[in-house]
């Protein structure tokens, strides 16, 4: 993988990584690099940052000023080389230690030296390599982090163990991320789905600008006049304007196992957006081996997220049984199952429920993930079985989700990536 594909590139010698950036040196802040490095020494400087220093790096390059500070921030996280506390022989001794204020200062440093995309990668690496999950329970730590979807997932997984003194700080971090996502996704989602609902409401006496010409022409082909090379439109078909009353029902059924953390965050935000549309009745259900209906909290996606419990087993069949019991208008209902399909319940019953819902007219959508990371590990056998039932399983990015929902509402083929 090249440095442009991943914001952090680790040295082969086990030293510190070099965060990638679009500049000639390939390092953040290269333009502000110490002038002590002549042009001929710039390559040595870059190799020194990659290799992490020590007697064996062979560069003979000494860092100072901003370069030394950047190297120190990298060494605190990557200096051990082995990950998860392991140390290689001769490697630099490093680590963030057990002090939350120390970690908070480190987080402030990396935000000074590196761009936001790199900061987020380093935060995730710190949580994994240095066991910082417990330190996320400290308020001063939370105030220092760069919030993103992955951090929200970590906070949610620690929710039940979080002390009261930290919960308000954690909610503030989660709310910041949720508001950013809503700002990014809400307007486009509402516009796309409103158009789909309007198009699904056909009327027979449309105004001129509401005429669906494609359907009108197809409906009047029998009135084609060859001598005039035209079709006489005896019957007009138009796009109706969706009334304020409920036209469609959407059930989001979300697997809250630990691997689905990012999907839970995005699904909760989309659930709140859908719930704000009067013409869509939205229900949000989360499950592991138990099923929890969070519909009454959809007015605030932060409440929804803190109502989840990431981790645990999976019983898709039980969750679908609950969703099936809530369907009152099958032909006007869309069920969206978001899961990696590792079923801990009764597989054949799960598939029978999906078949029964589709047979009754329900539009059934299976998403292996709702995130930017692509498809996670998933049960290929179950995915193939659902595809055979007419419910193909695929990973969906947040940007594609409005189009997927629009197609489902209009009963069109899904835009499978």
End-to-end CA span? 23 Å
Q: SSE order, as H and E? A: EEHHHHHHHEHEEEEHEEHHEHEHEH
Number of helices: 14
* Poorly predicted residue ranges: 1-37, 81-94
Strand tally, please? 12
Main sheet: strand order: 9-8-7-10-11-12
Content of β-strand: 5-15%
Question: Explain this structure to me?
Answer:
- Mean pLDDT is 78; it is low at 1-37 and 81-94.
- The strands form four sheets. The chain has a six-stranded mixed sheet with strand order 9-8-7-10-11-12. The chain has a two-stranded antiparallel sheet with strand order 1-2. The protein has a two-stranded antiparallel sheet with strand order 3-6.
- It has helices at residues 42-51, 65-78, 100-113, 116-129, 139-144, 149-157, 164-200, 213-219, 261-275, 301-306, 316-325, 347-359, 380-388, 401-409; strands at residues 8-10, 17-19, 202-203, 224-225, 230-231, 238-239, 248-255, 280-287, 291-293, 333-338, 363-370, 393-396.
- Helix content is 41%, strand content 12%.
- With 417 residues, the protein is of the alpha/beta class.
Can you give me a brief rundown of this structure?
By secondary structure, the protein is an alpha/beta fold. The chain contains 14 helices and twelve strands.
Keywords:
single chain; 417 residues; alpha/beta; two-stranded antiparallel ribbon; 12 strands
Sequence-ordered SSE layout with sheet pairings:
Layout: E1 8-10, E2 17-19, H1 42-51, H2 65-78, H3 100-113, H4 116-129, H5 139-144, H6 149-157, H7 164-200, E3 202-203, H8 213-219, E4 224-225, E5 230-231, E6 238-239, E7 248-255, H9 261-275, E8 280-287, E9 291-293, H10 301-306, H11 316-325, E10 333-338, H12 347-359, E11 363-370, H13 380-388, E12 393-396, H14 401-409
Parallel strand pairs: 7-8, 7-10, 10-11, 11-12
Antiparallel strand pairs: 1-2, 3-6, 4-5, 8-9
């Amino acid at each position: 993988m090249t440095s442009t594909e991943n914001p952090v590139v680790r040295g082969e010698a086990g030293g510190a990584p070099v965060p990638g950036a679009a500049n000639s040196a390939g390092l953040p802040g290269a333009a502000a690099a110490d002038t002590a490095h002549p042009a001929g020494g710039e390559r040595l400087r870059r190799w020194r940052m990659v290799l992490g220093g020590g007697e064996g790096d062979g560069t003979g390059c000494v860092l100072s000023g901003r370069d030394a500070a950047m190297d120190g921030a990298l060494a605190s996280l990557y200096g051990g080389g082995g990950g998860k506390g392991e140390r290689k022989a001769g490697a630099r001794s490093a680590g963030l230690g057990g002090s939350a204020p120390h970690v908070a200062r480190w987080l402030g440093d990396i935000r000074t030296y590196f761009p936001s995309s790199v900061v987020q990668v380093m935060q995730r690496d710190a949580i994994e390599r240095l066991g910082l999950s417990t330190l996320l329970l400290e308020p001063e730590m939370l105030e220092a982090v760069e919030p993103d979807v992955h951090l929200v997932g970590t906070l949610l997984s620690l929710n039940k163990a979080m002390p009261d003194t930290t919960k308000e700080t954690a909610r503030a971090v989660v709310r910041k991320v949720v508001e950013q996502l809503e700002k990014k996704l809400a307007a486009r989602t509402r516009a796309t789905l409103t158009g789909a609902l309007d198009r699904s409401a056909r009327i027979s006496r449309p105004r001129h600008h509401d005429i669906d010409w494609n359907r009108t022409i197809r409906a009047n082909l029998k009135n084609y006049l060859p001598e005039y090379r035209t079709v006489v439109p005896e019957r007009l078909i138009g796009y109706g304007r969706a009334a304020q009353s409920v036209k469609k029902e959407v059930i989001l059924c979300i697997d809250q196992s630990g691997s689905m953390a990012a999907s839970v965050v995005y699904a909760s935000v989309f659930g709140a957006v859908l719930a704000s549309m009067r013409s869509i009745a939205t229900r949000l259900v989360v499950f592991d081996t138990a099923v929890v209906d969070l519909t009454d909290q959809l007015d605030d996606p932060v409440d929804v997220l803190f109502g989840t419990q990431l981790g645990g087993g999976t019983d898709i069949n039980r969750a679908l049984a609950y969703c099936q019991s809530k369907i009152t208008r099958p032909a006007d209902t869309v069920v969206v199952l978001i899961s990696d399909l590792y079923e801990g319940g009764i597989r054949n019953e799960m598939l029978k429920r999906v078949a029964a819902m589709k047979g009754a007219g329900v539009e059934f959508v299976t998403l292996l993930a709702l995130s930017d990371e692509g498809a996670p590990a998933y049960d290929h056998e179950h995915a193939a079985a659902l595809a055979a039932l007419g419910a193909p399983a695929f990973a969906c990015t947040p940007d594609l989700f409005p189009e997927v929902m629009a197609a489902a509402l209009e009963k069109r083929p899904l835009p499978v990536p």
